[in-house]
Amino acid sequence: MKRKQNKKQSAVLEGKGSRGGQDPGLGPPPAKKKPSGLYKPPTHEELQTLKETESLFRTNLIKLQITELISEVKPNSSKEASEALETFLHKLKSELSSIKTTERLKLSEGLRLLPKMIKYPLSFPPSPNIKGHFEFSPPSKIKVTGSYLLETNLKTSPNVNLTVEIPRECLQEKDYMNYRVFHKRALYLSIIAGHLIKKRKLISSLDFTYDLNYPLLPILTLTPKDSSQFTVYIHTTIPADTFPLTKLLPSKSNVRRFARPFPFGEKEEEERECDHEDLPPLPTPHYNSAILLEMGSREKHLEELYSASAVDCPSITEATLLCKTWLHQRGLDQGYGGFTGFHASMVLLYLLRQRKLNHFMSSYQVFRIFLQFLANSNWDERGISLGDRENYPSLPSIDEFHSSFPIVFIDSSGYLNLTAHTSLHQYHALRQEAGLCHALLDKSDGSFGSVFLKPVKPVLKYDALCKFDLSAGNIKGSPLFDRNSDKWEELVFDFGGWVWPGVLDEVMRVIDKGLEGRVQLISQLPVKRNKWAVTAVSPTLAGSDVTLGLIFNTERVYEPLIMGPPADSNEASTFRSFWGEKSELRRFPDGSINEAVLWTEEKGEGEKRNVPRLIIDHILKRHTHIEGVVLTHNTLDSLLSSGKGSIDTREGVSVGVVNAFIELSRELRQLKDLPLEIATVKGASPIFCHTEVHPPLPWNGKSSSKVRSLPLPLVQDHCLHPSCDVTTPTLTPCFHVVMEMEASGKWPDSPDAIDNIKTAFYLSISSSLRKQHGLITGTSKDYIDILKKGYVFRLTIFYLREVSILNDLRTPQSLSKAKGLEKDCISKPLLVSTLNGLHNQFPAYSLGTRLCKKWVCSHLLTNQIPDEAVELLVAHLFLHPGPYLVPGSSVCVLLRFFDLLLSHDWPRDPLLVDLNNQLNDETTSEIISSFSKDRERQPLMFIATPLDHTSKLTKDRPSAPVMGRLLTLAKASLNLLTNQIDSLQIGRESPDFKQIFRSPLTDYHLLIHLDESKVPRLQTGRVSSVDGHHYSHLPIVQFDPVHLYVQALESAYSNLAMFFYDKHGGSVIGVLWKQAAFKPHPFKPNGMQCRVTISKSESKLLVAPDKEVIISDMMILGDGLVRNIEVLETRPS
């Protein structure tokens, strides 16, 4: 595919020749060929496009998406903008060429050449003992390089890289020693800045920043006055043959001990007096790489990339845009050591030279190969090189680079490691993202948006963020860095005094070792690129708060025991040295005696979730003297805990209920003298899939009505608080169990007769359970309540044909009953069974679902959003996690839950939850087609599963107002919680994370305040045990006056108002009037309840609901439960 000539390519400010010559981008555009007629044969480009669409793209949609994406990510290239930029660049070249030569001074006195107002961009001045001289001369060459010429700029950060070559007369033979070349380039840029700062008509802003975020490589960044779309970066370069390449090998030392950098204002006399002559030189691999980068590397790389994109594989240009977009959306190109678009371009060049790419490949195919290559790479063990080692065997070996760098990718010179500043953990994050996205592209479920369009936010990507202050404590004097350790000094010399990248690498290695097997990935969150005015002092190089992202291995992350080596092995001393006093000898059941570390002896899951924080806190304190670590993964778990100050989230209670149910099922099957055998016994309550928000404690025969006072009110300033200290009797819920008998032709065909048969079964089963197993039961005509191990199970018998029999009658009552049976006895048990499988497969599913359901209810949406809808939304996060991995913590689940609610296009797309991988392409197409054809009649929140293609679950709920409120609350909660996590700082008070669970109450017309002593769930999940005496009477089952009161309100006034409450202990009911119902309407004799006459015309008597009467009736209906009803006058009607 031919590349179009663009006028902006003439912006290369020096050169001769044409696009195919040695200096790309200079010649006039080639003459356009005249069209040969309407019916001319298809061109090579057209044939290639057809072939791509047919063979290389799975569907036409992907082809269209790629084309549209490319057009969107490219900067706007209007003729006027291009001409304005070209004009600016030519003027800038003239200004740079006109700077006058300065006098020649000793380099140690070079700061005298600084223009007024300009501050030196390095953090330390030239040493008094430094050798060499410096004078400024105008640049010998000025060139445009980088992505602008290659047409691979992104719209998000359009830039032009301008390189100015420092003339040879400004340089000396030994300038690669002792920071001399870095001081010279800093002075050179400072003098340029001093000249340009006066050109206010040409430049609107002028700043310094660090190239590659490396503090020895400051560059100038400026914004044109008349073309603010682009940012121009001014880099320096020196002739390629200035220094011998062999002097810049990674193992070479080019900074002597006497030249140790000291920041401005820091005393150095004491250090200067030390005798360094006998100390061995320290290698400076990063320092050497920075010099190699300055030696004409940018121009050479540009030529290589230009040749590859213009001749060898034209689709590389668009593929580079795809790679850059992918990297940017994941933040992989940010911060020190980021994998930038330049690195991606060089990887594509490597793939081309390895013949993995060819001239006929599409950009999409090239991108997929790029991802696959990164995912399968092992640059940390065996690096790659663009160098021609066959023809130049004298090039240094890759092993030589591995001894100095964790990641190795060498350019064509054979000497420059392009990933010199990339850490091992950054590379692992890159490799993991590549593998994840390559797998996503293999799916046909709309993964394009996940790969290219959706930004990957750290708070959503990582299961936990770990924060600590790297500058806290005496790291230099810690065991990790002894004060006289050469490792610390090596970092000081190699990074020009900026030791923190190297220190952080060492710290992360310690954390990695401590969390071995518990995490899949540890990665540092990128720090934003520093930029400062040329008139300001360069930013401090001291460390600051560090944020690490952790992705858990959920199978092992909370294990309380670390098993060490046998006590008599050689590894035992190493184990004890690492873990210190935490390590102890333990005898295990198999008789072995091993070193081991036990973090907690508690069996509760809440305690175990503290293990990662305990490990990190201990090893940082022991090895680095850093104290104070914050981990965010269990920040909100206390909302699900069993008492004030407790972190027990009651997973054990759910397990106890399930175990009791299994035992009850076995006892039911063992019953004798039943007419029919029991076929199945299934659980149909959330407790059976471990998603009950507050699993109840077992009834233990003690009174639950003992008075306990908690003085805090529930409502303050119209804001609902999630936890309050109030004493109430606890609720004894029942868990729904569905039992099916074996098939028989003796079942009657009449619904009434079927009900009578069921009642007879209930009486027989109840009697048998009492006699054969000694269980306490309570029987009604519709169910049996069975008390087993302190839990009440409500058993319902289901006859499969009863649904069809009721549907055949076609009366409103029979249809309604059939719908209820189908939901309660077929759909719910099947859904519960499926979700229980998710709980077993994904450890974070149940706790995350409970937290999400808690959030929904805390905003008074209990009766507006079905619990099952929340469970399916969370299931979607685990079954379709792209662009992330499966979440591994409750906070991560909650944040992604908010993001799913906000990012999914509910009006246009159904949400497909592929339980058990049963949604094939054909079924998916049918669901989408049916949804699109009749969208107006479909539920607002359409959730399709293999069990429910039409979203029956959400057919009636949520309504449009509730859906709008849900999304508004989700957006506010996501923003607030994200900002709170981002603002966490060591040593400061933690923000109130529970704030997102406090619902604003000012949006309602009425607030019905309940008597807190009558709210049975007010203390749900807050009391760990019940004190009192044994009583012979049984607990009251499923008695919830608040729920019953809301049901009565909805039954009486659902046409006039909507009611909102929190079933998990809420003592306020919000009421929202339906304004349409209060419009005047004609009088009807049977429709005058709570209505008043408002006008009388000649022909009609108009009436409308009377709010005062309604409020009075609500008080009467809630007599004994309602404390008062508050009318919010400020609420708009």
From TrEMBL:
Pfam families: Nrap, Nrap_D2, Nrap_D3, Nrap_D4, Nrap_D5, Nrap_D6. Residues 1-43 are annotated as: Disordered. Residues 160-308, 316-454, 459-624, 636-839, 842-998, 1001-1125 form the Nrap protein domain. It comes from the Eukaryota. This is Nucleolar protein 6. Part of the small subunit (SSU) processome, first precursor of the small eukaryotic ribosomal subunit. During the assembly of the SSU processome in the nucleolus, many ribosome biogenesis factors, an RNA chaperone and ribosomal proteins associate with the nascent pre-rRNA and work in concert to generate RNA folding, modifications, rearrangements and cleavage as well as targeted degradation of pre-ribosomal RNA by the RNA exosome. Belongs to the NRAP family. GO terms for cellular component: CURI complex; small-subunit processome; UTP-C complex. It comes from Amphimedon queenslandica (Sponge). Its main location: nucleus. Keywords: Nucleus, RNA-binding. One of its GO terms (biological process) is rRNA processing. It is found in: Nucleus, Nucleolus. GO terms for molecular function: RNA binding.
